[in-house]
Design brief:
The chain is mostly helical. It is built from six helices and two strands; from the N terminus they run ββαααααα. It has one domain. It is 59% helix and 7% strand. Strands 1-2 form a two-stranded antiparallel sheet. A hairpin with a 2-residue loop joins strand 1 and strand 2. Helix 1 packs across helix 4 and helix 4 packs across helix 6. The longest helix has 23 residues. The protein is globular, with a radius of gyration of 16 Å.
Length: 138
């Protein structure tokens, strides 16, 4: 799906995804995650780092753009987090955990969505690692 290009020894870059079938599949996955988690358009747009108007086109299935490395990374993290929550929880927390205030270390009463919106990809990676660790993997 992604084409990795060697630029210099030891460094590689993911080319933007511009094939509309692949773009549509990734966008559909991310919009389904946002819907399952009950995210507002503003929250979903922040997590995917797009303007709210672009998020609206993505939700409507009319987005015709490309997905750069940043968007592909965000999609991977969000879908992986969604999947990890499904494995970890059985019940309301499966979809409710991202918007549930957490008193645990590092959360300070905030929701995971608030932390990820404020912290971008690094915070999303930490949330993914947190859920993976709770599942017993690292």
């Amino acid at each position: 799906m992604l084409e990795i290009v060697q630029n210099t020894p030891g460094q590689s870059v993911v080319r933007p995804i511009d094939r509309q079938g692949e773009v549509a599949a990734i966008v559909k996955g991310v919009t389904r995650v946002a819907d399952a988690w009950g995210l507002s358009n503003a929250e979903a747009a922040m997590l995917f780092d797009v303007p709210v108007a672009t998020w609206g086109r993505m939700k409507a299935g009319t987005y015709k753009g490309v997905l750069d490395q940043d968007k592909v990374t965000r999609a991977s993290l969000l879908i992986g987090l969604f999947k990890g929550l499904g494995v970890l929880f059985n019940g309301p927390l499966t979809h409710g955990w991202p918007k549930t205030a957490n008193a645990g270390p590092g959360f300070d009463g905030r929701t995971p969505v608030q932390i990820m919106c404020a912290g971008g990809i690094p915070a999303m990676m930490k949330m993914r690692q947190h859920i993976d660790a709770l599942r017993g993997g690292v």
